[in-house]
């Protein structure tokens, strides 16, 4: 059974009952799932201000080869989705004044997507998460990288996983300028579902 809780800063948390400790010598644990929101576009925006999301920014979709890999909030509202073909996305975006942007790419050796800017941003993201954890009560918590832009943190309930999640959101946004969402739950599956709910609500944590 879960419930939605509002933090002091107004973001929402979807919380289930904490997982019970295995023995009296162990503490109850929670899992925090942290996921960068529209990661590829956010990285691209660090090099090209025209794709930064904000008031007046046209809807944008980022693609590589024949696959849309990231969609701005305004483009999503129009019906553009990840893994659409660029042609299908363009047909939706163009009438609304939007556009397609190609992922970073290089000519040699042969034209191909250039992943280094995204890989560098990913390393910075996880370094920031680690530093934020080690600077607070959750120092030493296990951080597991799940993909280029998401990970899981195992946090003891006594350290306040909701507070840990809020601090992660704040630290990453302030230090790197990357929007992230967090979900807090007793296990990875529910934590990931919670962070997805936070994204859908427009909040920073779920």
Describe the protein.
- With 206 residues, the chain is of the alpha+beta class.
- Helix content is 34%, strand content 27%.
- It contains six helices and eleven strands.
- The protein has helices at 39-45, 73-78, 86-93, 116-134, 161-176, 188-201; strands spanning 2-6, 12-16, 29-36, 60-64, 67-71, 99-102, 105-106, 112-113, 142-147, 150-156, 180-185.
- Strands 9-10-3-11 form a four-stranded antiparallel β-sheet.
- Helix 4 packs across helix 5.
- The longest helix is centred in the middle third of the chain and has 19 residues, at 116-134.
- The two termini are 15 Å apart.
- The relative contact order is 0.22.
- Mean pLDDT is 84; it is low at 8-12.
Defining traits:
206 residues; alpha+beta; 6 helices; 4-stranded antiparallel beta sheet
Mind sketching the topology for me?
Blueprint (H helix, E strand, L loop, with lengths): L1 E5 L5 E5 L12 E8 L2 H7 L14 E5 L2 E5 L1 H6 L7 H8 L5 E4 L2 E2 L5 E2 L2 H19 L7 E6 L2 E7 L4 H16 L3 E6 L2 H14 L5
Parallel strand pairs: 4-6
Antiparallel strand pairs: 1-2, 3-10, 3-11, 4-5, 7-8, 9-10
């Amino acid at each position: 059974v879960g419930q939605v809780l509002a933090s002091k800063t107004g973001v929402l948390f979807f919380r289930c009952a904490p997982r019970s400790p295995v023995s009296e010598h162990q503490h109850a644990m929670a899992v925090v799932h942290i996921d960068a929101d529209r990661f590829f576009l956010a990285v691209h925006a660090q090099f090209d201000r025209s794709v930064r999301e904000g008031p007046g920014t046209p809807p944008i979709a980022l693609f590589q080869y024949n696959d849309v890999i990231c969609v701005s909030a305004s483009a999503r509202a129009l019906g553009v989705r990840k893994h659409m073909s660029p042609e299908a996305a363009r047909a939706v975006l163009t009438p609304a004044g939007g556009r397609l942007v190609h992922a970073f790419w290089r000519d040699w050796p042969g034209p191909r997507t250039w992943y280094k800017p995204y890989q560098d941003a990913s390393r910075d993201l996880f370094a920031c998460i680690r530093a934020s954890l080690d600077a607070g009560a959750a120092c030493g918590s296990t951080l597991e990288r799940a993909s280029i832009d998401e990970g899981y943190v195992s946090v003891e309930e006594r350290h306040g996983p909701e507070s840990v999640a809020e601090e992660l959101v704040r630290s990453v946004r302030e230090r790197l300028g990357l929007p992230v969402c967090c979900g807090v739950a007793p296990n990875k599956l529910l934590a990931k579902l919670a962070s997805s709910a936070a994204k859908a609500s427009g909040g920073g944590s779920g």
